[in-house]
Structure formats: C-alpha cells, structure tokens
Amino acid sequence: MTDRLNEAIQIKRAADRGRYDTETINAIADAGLVAHVGTIRDGQPVVIPMFCVRDRDHLLLHGAPAAGVLRRARAEERTICVEMTLIDGLVLARSAFHHSMNYRSLVVIGIPDEVTEESEKAHALEMFVERLIPGRQADLRPNNQKEIQGTAVFRVSLEQASAKVRSGPPIDDDEDYELDIWAGVVPTRLAMDDPIDDPRLLPGVSVPANVTAYVRGD
Amino acid sequence: MTDRLNEAIQIKRAADRGRYDTETINAIADAGLVAHVGTIRDGQPVVIPMFCVRDRDHLLLHGAPAAGVLRRARAEERTICVEMTLIDGLVLARSAFHHSMNYRSLVVIGIPDEVTEESEKAHALEMFVERLIPGRQADLRPNNQKEIQGTAVFRVSLEQASAKVRSGPPIDDDEDYELDIWAGVVPTRLAMDDPIDDPRLLPGVSVPANVTAYVRGD
Fold first, then answer.
1. Choosing among A59, A61, A97, which should be mutated to test the B contact, i.e. which has the most B CBs within 10 A?
2. A197 touches chain B (CB under 8 A)
3. pLDDT grade, residue A14 (50/70/90)?
4. Which residue stretches of chain B are H helix?
5. What global pTM score does this model have?
6. To bridge A45 with a disulfide, which of A29, A176, B20, B38 should be the other Cys (CB 3.0-4.6 Å)?
7. Which B residues in the span 108-167 are in contact with A, Cβ-Cβ below 8 Å?
8. Chain A contact for B188, CB < 8 A?
9. pLDDT digits (tens, 9 = 90+) for A53-75
10. How close is the nearest chain B Cα to the Cα of A144, in Å?
C-alpha cells in the first residue's frame, strides 16, 4: 500500500514503527475520541481538536468549530491532516535518552467532503452518539429537523492513512543493562469514573445499564 | 491580552469557553503529555504528535520526528501551531444534539527556536524526564555528550496562546428537562496502572518509591 501513499504520511523516523494495514488503522481510529485537525489559515498552520468517529472506510468529523474550517478546505479542494494519538504507557529506561512513551498514532491526509444527504447525515449523527455510549441513541428523543440541519458533518477517506506504534519495554544501550537502575513501563489509559447525575434530573430517573456497563468496561 | 493575539488563536465559536489567562494556559500545558504540532509541508498541513513539557513561559518540544520539521520552520521563520487537549468527560444530554465532551484545550502559535546552549539544553532534557516521573533524573546515569548532541530540543513561546474549556453538566433545551431521560457526565482521565518491570532488570532491583507514588497519585 505504501507506494500509493501521499509523501506526507510516510513514516520516515523510526520507520520500523510505521504501519499501513487497515486493521491497525481502524483500531486506532475506533479507540480515539478526539482528532487533531490541521488546516492552513492565512498561510499559517492551525490545529483544532474535533470529535471524530470512524464509519467504515472514512472518518466523520463534526462540531461547530469544524464547519467553517472544513467547508473552506472542501471548497478550495485542499487537503487537511487528521491526527489521532493514544498514549499507552510511560517508558522508563536506564538512561534519560531512552525514555519514551508507548503510543498508537494515526495520520490521515484527505480533502474533506460534507455529508449532506439526509439519511447519511442521520446515520452519521447517530454514530457520534453511539461512539460516546453504545446504545445511547435508543434512549433519546429523536433529532428534529432543525438539529439535523444545524449540524455540519464531514467525512475524510482513510485511503491516505498511516499509523505509528510503539509498544513494549524500554530499549537501553547494551552496557546499561548492567546498571542496577529500575526500568520498565507504566501503562496508561483513558479511564472512566462513576457517572455524575445531571442536577436537573427528574425524580426517579437512574443511570441506565448501558452507561454503567460502558463505564465499567463490560 | 486578547488584543495582541494572533487572529488564528482567537476563540470564535463558543467564545464564552475561551480563556486567555496564564494560569489556565499553564495548567493545561502541565497536564498534557503530547502536543499535536501543525506545520506546512509542500503546501499541505501536517500534524505530528510530539512529547511536550512547559518550562516557565514556553513549551519545549523534542523527539526525533520533531527535529526536521521544527528546524525547517525555524529556518523559514514560519509559525507552527501547537495544540494540546485533555478529555475530562463524556457529556450525555437528553437529546443527541446536546451531547458533548468536557475538555481543556490549548492552542499556541509561534516560531520555534532551537535550544542549543549547553546548560539550557541539559536543563530542558531533564524537564522531559521529570515530566514523565518526578524525581526520575536522580536515579539515572548522567547523559553523555553524544546523547545531548543527538537530541534536538525546541522551544515555542506561550505569548500567543489561547485555551478553551468546557466543564459541567449537559445544557439541554428547556423543554427537554421534562423528559424522563437520564443525563449527566461520565468523568474521564488518563489513568496509570501498576508498573511493569523490564524483563532484563537485574535481580533485586525493585520499583522505586517515586514511580509508585506518582502512579498512585500521591
């Protein structure tokens, strides 16, 4: 797949950490919540965080700040860069130099396309809610026409994508393995804590099972 | 402070969430581990994740992928955009439309400057290690000359910075507060789990107290 990749997404530094397979790319996209979207504005690079969800072979982006930026990129047929990174651990080596992090990162280059067809847009909006809490959409009142029209949704193809992954223990210099310094990995993850009720909840309404199950990781 | 801000970092959407005070900006920089750095390459925006730490009134960036990108921006006197985002919670409203996330994000625009003076660079490299685990540097063998020369460190001033913060419960449409739908917030945070020993640890070397204390949040 590498040969048809945009130059900008080819992994050059630590090239052995580069991955181009769909499985790795999809897994990172599915695990991330926020994408960091790079565009050019008045000749300057600008990066904006946006809620992001994968739908088959593309990423969906939405949110108020997204609309202007992405619509402009689309109108000018300019690529944007969508980056997602998951921090998996602190890598503590025997020398400062070999300290690192374990991570999975994804970089996608593409021209955003607006999702305007009504059923596709309804599906996309549902994907965002389901990404936050699986099963949530069924508990909500349906979207009204004003809400659907008031939300801009864009898609970016995953065709031009590359991933970079570091995992495992520190890699120290050969002679440093003789030192009696502790080394290892502190695993990190995005943890969820117990749900906090909205202060204006109606009496008797309790946390639904799908929320509790998701928070617990069931 | 707003009046001397670069146009690119002014918060326009949800402007009530914009913050420009040093305290908020520093707190986000200190809580983040990874920055998403936007540059322009062959006319296209590119975003790369980089380990980032604050030192007084600027951010320090380093890492192999950083060197070429940042050195080029410096040589061409081009600004880069450094963005950091912390996800603090999933905001679950009564309608899909008002679902959101609690977050703290930071955007900094500046021309990177390379840290080359020897003592400043040694200090900067120490800051990176101490950011991973406070107190770690003292447990390591000292950096050698080759390591110091082999690591490129850059700084970006925090003068042109803005933050955006969402916190608290969902904000629903007035009439939706009458619905018996559960709403609230699922708090999220970057959690650390028990350290994993390097498989090549010398016998009798155990996890130091500073690592354990940091993981436990003491």
1. A97
2. yes
3. confident
4. 22-31, 64-75, 118-132, 145-149, 209-216
5. 0.94
6. B38
7. 109, 125-126, 128-129, 132-133, 136-137, 139-141, 143, 147, 150-151
8. yes
9. 999 999 999 877 678 889 999 99
10. 9
Domain that holds residue A127: 2-89+98-168
Report pLDDT digits (tens) over A157-184. 999 999 999 999 999 999 999 999 999 9
- Position B15 scores a pLDDT of 76
Length of chain B: 218
Band (pLDDT 50/70/90 cuts) for residue A1 is: very low
Q: Is residue B159 part of a domain?
A: yes
Per-residue pLDDT tens over the stretch B73-85: 999 999 999 999 9
**A92·B34 Cβ contact <8 A:** no
Q: Mean pLDDT of all residues in chain B?
A: 93
Residue B2 has pLDDT above 50, yes or no: no
For B210, which residue in chain A has the nearest alpha carbon? Answer: A182
B185 assigned to some structural domain: no
- Asked if the structure places residue A77 within a domain, the reply is yes
pLDDT attached to residue A49: 95
Domain total in chain B: 1
Shortest CB distance from A96 goes to which of B34, B51, B137?
B137
Among B140, B146, B173, B197, the residue to mutate for chain A (most A Cβ within 10 A): B140
Show Cβ contacts of residue B61 under 8 Å, excluding neighbours closer than 6 positions. Answer: B35, B37, B50, B51, B52, B70, B82, B112, B153, B154, B155, B156
Q: What is the CATH number of the domain that holds B135?
A: 2.30.110.10
Query: Closest Cα of chain A to B181: distance in Å?
Result: 7
3-state secondary structure B57-93: CEEEEECHHHHHHHHHHHHCCCCEEEEEEEEEEEEEC
Q: Is residue B218 part of a domain?
A: no
Q: Tell me the C-alpha distance between B169 and B146, whole Å.
A: 52
